[in-house]
Every structure is written in structure tokens, then in C-alpha cells.
Amino acid sequence: MRKERSYRRYIPIIFIAAGGVFLLSKIYEKDKRVEYYSSGSIKQEYYVNSKEEADGRLTEYFEDGSISSLVDFKDGKQHGWSQFFRKNGSMRKKTYFENGVQQDTLLTFYSDGDVESAFSIKDGSKHGSYAYYFGNGKKKEEGSYLNDQLEGEVISYSNRGQVAARGFYDSGARYALIRYTNGQQEYISFPAGFEITIPLSFKLDSISSSTFASFKNKKEGISLMVGANVSSQPLHDEVKKQVKESTAANNLKEVTTEEMVIDGVKAQSVVLLDNASNEYLNLFFFKVNDALINVYFFVPASKMAEHKSSIQEIINSISVEAT
Fold this sequence. Notes:
The protein starts with a strand and ends with a strand. 9% of the residues lie in helices and 64% in strands. The chain is mostly beta strands. It has an 18-stranded antiparallel β-sheet that branches. A seven-stranded antiparallel β-sheet has the order 18-19-20-24-23-22-21, sandwiched between helices. It has a domain at 198-323: Protein Transport Mog1p, Chain A. Keywords: Membrane, Transmembrane, Transmembrane helix. This is MORN repeat variant. The chain crosses the membrane at residues 7-28. It comes from Pontibacter akesuensis.
């Protein structure tokens, strides 16, 4: 590559008087710079101002002469749209700059011109909503960024438009993931290292970054909460500690405690009675590696006998796997 030519452009200054129009002088405006491939074809051309700063549009070419990019500059900084192309002429990427800082939008495209992804940009970082698309135009994934980190819910779709997964993020870290098969909720996984299959009758109600997810079976009037926390203590000691803290802080009464096995994993079951609401809280604890897994059922006392067997069936249906 070598600099081949420099073209100077002038603006004439015109003076209009009663006797006519007079050309007084010429003022320097910009130099055009052209750079070449060793083959002799143009590699890029652009303008510079009196400070030798890029000013105006820079055009870059592939060696075959097709345009590879169009980038706007102002006083040496990117300012305006920056567009990037494939050799076939289709746009590959498009974004916007203000005074050298990326702002507003970042778009990428498939070779046929359809949008592949769209990101909101603020001060050079991904900030706000984003989406990916399949080649058929259907949405592939959508969510939000906060200062370049994923934040909140991210939904992934199959190419048929059905929900395939829902991920939940806090400052870029995923704290839960729900997988779906044919649009039906299948299981939830946590970074603590386990997956739990949730019965289809329970639908997600809420979820928090403290790794607790709440599901409800509105028809049966049962609420289900699952979560995990890291603990190096033996299961029995950890359960005893949590039950003691819960009963003291929430006006609860311990009713029964039972050891059991869930999906081949030793577990403990504890039933507490909420004296204020007259609801039973059924707690199930088990450990996978250092993750203490908690499964809670909230059932009205008047329906405890009715739902006791169904709760046991649900517990037996839970599949726990170390991830």
C-alpha cells in the first residue's frame, strides 16, 4: 500500500458589489487522500482537514473494487454512520458514532439483507434492548443489557417461534435457566449445580437473583418455591439451622420432620405451620455436592390432607442432576 495522490479542494470567496461580482481569493478546505493496493487498485480514499485529521467520508474497497466500508469522520473522530459490506455488495454491519463514541444502534445483517441482530448502544456500550433473528425473520433471542452486561430476563426461541429457554441475569451472571420442549416448561437449572424438573401444572410466578424461583398451580391452590445456596455443612445440621431460624423469625411451628430419598439423593422433609395465616409450609432439603437445594410447598391448612399425597407425587417426580 502506498499513498499515491493528494487532491486539494478549494472554496472560492465571492464578493458582491454594486458594480458586479468579483472573485477575491480561494480558501483551502480539504485534502483528498487515496491509498492503493500493490495491484494498483484503490484501497481507500478519504479527506483530511488542515490538521491532517480525517474529515468527511472514508471509503474502503476490496481489491476487486467493490466497497468494503463507508465511515464518516469529523475532525479526526468517527461521526455519523459506519457501514460495512461483503464482497457481493450486501451490508454486513451498520452502527452510529457521535464524536468518536458509538451510540444509538448496532445492526448486523444476513447476506440477503435481513437483520441478524439489533443492539441498543449508549456511550460505546450495549445498553438497553437487543434481539437476534433467524434467517426466516423470526426472533431467535431477546433481552436487555445494562452497561455491557446482560440484565434481567433473556428469552430464546425455536425457529418455529416457540419459547425454548428463559435465562435470568444479574450484572451479567446467569442465576437461573428454564428450558422448554415444544413450548412446554421442562426443567429449571441453577449455577449452584443442579437441575429440577418442574411438573407442567406449575407455571413460573416470580424469580429472583437470590436463586429462588416461585411456581404456582392455580388450579390446586399450591405454591412451589425452589432454590439453592452453597453450604459445606452436613445436611442434617443445615436443615436444623434453617428450621430454627425460620420458626423464630416467622411465628412458625414445627409439625413433623422426616428423612427420605429424592431421585436417589438423601433428603429431609420438614412441615411447619404458619400460626398467622394457618398455612402449612412443606420444606424439602437435599444436597448435590456443596449445593443445599430447597423445595418449598405452601398449602392452606384446610387443604393439607387433600394435597398431601399429590405433594409427595410431585416430590417423587422431581429429577435432580449435578450440572
